[in-house]
Automatic annotation (TrEMBL):
Catalytic activity: oxaloacetate + H(+) = pyruvate + CO2; (S)-malate + NAD(+) = pyruvate + CO2 + NADH
Cofactor note: Divalent metal cations. Prefers magnesium or manganese.
Family: Belongs to the malic enzymes family.
Protein name: malate dehydrogenase (oxaloacetate-decarboxylating)
Location of the active site: Y118 (proton donor), K190 (proton acceptor)
Gene Ontology cellular component annotations, sorted alphabetically: cytosol; mitochondrion
Entry EC number(s): 1.1.1.38
Residues noted as binding (S)-malate in the record, renumbered to the chain: N431, N475
Region annotated Disordered, chain positions: 581-602
Ligand binding (a divalent metal cation): E261, D262, D285
EC category name: oxidoreductase
Keyword Acetylation: no
Length: 602
């Protein structure tokens, strides 16, 4: 039985839920209006009865195709595109026409297409946003129209219509820096991943860019640039703009979870720390990277027999990602051993451009780095200006690279580390591939097959003395969608440290290395929907335990809770349509979900 047939024959005990995916969908549209609504459109797959009922005869060729046949045709078309950017553009066009076909095509070819719809190809699309622009997607807010923020956000639905918001200010995009208004595409791409990887309903999400100007001279001098042509606004005016967005979003969409994405180093951690105590929010660059890396570390420590309380870690590259990883590891050490976060931080050494972070660096330290700055007296007379000196002194079990400095993990550094540790855990995480700190093949060779490796980009297996070892990819997409799903379904008031720890444990429990130490430390992204269910279940249970879940009647039983979650996950299948009158129809039935009211009313 196909996935489509299974979805249409489900008789779930949770079919009454608002986010249920069982049974037919109400639809008040007919004719061309129906064909022009991406979340209802089936194209050539509309069955005969629906063609008659929804007045589609004459608008479609005679033959009725299956979704599988459509996917085959679409893949053939995709394969003829001459380069990756052209394939990315083709996929964007498909998404604007038929959401089910778009997601099903990716799902069937996930390994091949992941780099097309996300990094690195999406980075190029973002850089060329103004040149490739065809039609708007998402909500564009700019700092010169702060008084319009509430109104402009209000066009996207009612309080019940939005579950998940991704917002960026476009300052630090995918390792390619300040992209200004083009940042809207990273918000769009992240939401695609939440749907693909965790079944977040695509027409219940909102992508937002906060246009504060740009310091990218190439964009400022481009006559086609679509954003504000002014240097980035900082300080109080910036903070008030962000706060106006957050407060407006909370008032308009009180059930929505807010995901901050690709904010710059001066703002990412600061804004997260400011809003976390009061709203359900998340920053993937800080928390997502930290969670997935900690999950890989947890699996690595299981293989090596290392306890969290005994672990020593060096982080090379102490920006948003590096300190985010440090925070997650610190919190896990504190939780595992019952010590304070301050004491747990003493097991972590952070290195950046000036070398080891020291208290004497003073104002040069970011707010996120201060917790990891060491006392100068500890390092009096010891080398600390370069990574090798720090590794020699610390003798770390774990070495993390988030520096975007290619080949920074030299043979001398890796072999120095391996001389003190039986199974060194080494994660060169910088993206894209050309920026990684070391090639896994070299690390494996230099450590004689003993290193436990995870990377920020996909790499093939490595061998030593004829034995093959899988290289895990620290792909945030195995983590953040499941966390978001758990928060959305539980309608949690906050996303707490304990909920993140629960997510990490759920992800680590899926590690193939727990059964075979030569396998990857993290599960493959192709299994991500099942992984997301496990993570969401852990997050929901923790939200309930902390008294933060606002959704009613969440099942206590593990199996029932899993069924409850799966029933509310959107699948790329064609559901039957039930014709209803425009009068009294819901916004969903009238095709108004996922688009601004001003667009649907035109």
């Amino acid at each position: 039985m196909s996935a489509e047939e299974k979805a249409q024959t489900k008789h779930s005990k949770f079919g009454h839920l608002p986010l249920s995916t069982s049974g037919p969908q109400d639809c008040a549209l007919v004719g061309s209006a129906l064909l022009n609504t991406p979340y209802f459109n089936k194209g050539s797959a509309f069955p005969s009865n629906e063609r008659k009922q929804f007045e589609l005869h004459g608008l479609l060729p005679q033959a009725v195709m299956s979704l599988d046949q459509q996917v085959k045709r679409a893949y053939q078309q995709y394969s003829t595109r001459k380069d990756d950017l052209a394939k990315n553009t083709f996929m964007t066009s498909m998404k604007e026409q038929n959401e089910v076909l778009y997601y099903r095509l990716i799902q069937d070819h996930l390994k091949e297409m992941f780099s097309i719809i996300y990094t690195p190809t999406e980075g190029e699309a973002i850089q060329r946003f103004s040149q490739l622009f065809r039609r708007p997607e998402g909500c564009f807010l700019n700092i010169e129209d702060v008084d319009r923020v509430y109104h402009d956000l209000s066009q996207w639905g009612t309080a019940e219509d939005i579950d998940y918001i991704v917002v960026t200010d476009g300052e630090e995009i995918l390792g390619i820096g300040d992209q200004g208004v083009g940042g809207i595409l990273i918000s769009v791409a992240k939401l695609v991943l939440t749907t693909l990887c965790a079944g977040i309903h695509p027409n219940r999400t909102l992508a937002v860019v906060l246009d504060c100007g740009t310091n990218n001279e190439e964009h400022l001098s481009d006559p086609l640039y679509l954003g504000l042509k002014k240097p980035r606004v900082r300080g109080t005016e910036y903070d008030e703009f962000v706060d106006t967005f957050v407060q407006s979003a909370r008032k308009l969409y009180p059930r929505a979870y807010i995901h901050f994405e690709d904010f710059g180093l001066p703002n990412a951690r600061r804004l997260l720390d400011h809003y976390r105590p009061s709203i359900p929010c998340f920053n993937d660059d800080v928390q997502g990277t930290g969670c997935v890396t900690l999950a890989a570390m947890t699996a690595g420590m299981h293989v090596s027999g290392l306890k969290m309380t005994d672990m020593r870690m060096v982080v090379f590259g102490s920006g948003t990602a590096g300190t985010g990883i440090a925070d997650q590891v610190r919190d896990a050490i504190a939780a595992d051993s019952g010590i304070s976060k301050e004491d747990a931080a003493k097991q972590i050494w952070c290195v950046d451009k000036p070398g080891l972070l020291l208290k004497s660096h003073g104002d040069k330290l970011t707010s996120a780095q201060i917790a990891y700055a060491r006392e100068d007296s500890e390092w009096k007379g010891k080398g600390h200006d370069d990574l090798l000196s720090v590794v020699k002194e610390v003798k770390p079990h774990v070495l993390i690279g988030t520096s975007t400095k290619p080949k920074a993990f030299t043979q001398e550094i890796i072999q120095e580390m391996a001389s003190h540790v039986e199974r060194p855990i080494i994660f060169p995480l910088s993206n894209p591939t050309r920026l990684h700190e070391a090639d896994p093949k070299d690390i494996n060779e230099w450590t004689k097959g003993k290193a436990l490796i995870a990377t920020g980009s996909p790499f093939p297996p490595v061998t030593y003395n004829g034995k093959e070892y899988e290289v895990a990819e620290c792909n945030n997409s195995t983590c953040f969608p499941g966390i978001g799903l758990g928060c959305v379904l539980s309608r949690t008031k906050l996303l707490t440290d304990k909920m993140l720890v629960a997510a990490v444990k759920a992800l680590a429990a899926q590690s193939p290395a727990l059964k075979d130490p030569d396998k990857g430390l993290l599960p493959d992204v192709v299994n991500v929907r099942d992984i997301s269910v496990h993570i969401a279940r852990a997050v929901i249970k923790q939200a309930v335990a902390e008294g933060l879940a606002q959704e009613k009647d969440i099942p206590d039983d593990e199996d029932e809770l899993e069924e409850w979650i799966r029933e509310q996950m959107w699948d790329p299948v064609y559901r039957p349509l039930k014709h209803v009158s425009q009068h009294g129809a819901s916004r969903h039935a009238k095709g108004e979900m996922g688009i601004a009211g001003s667009v649907s009313d035109s």
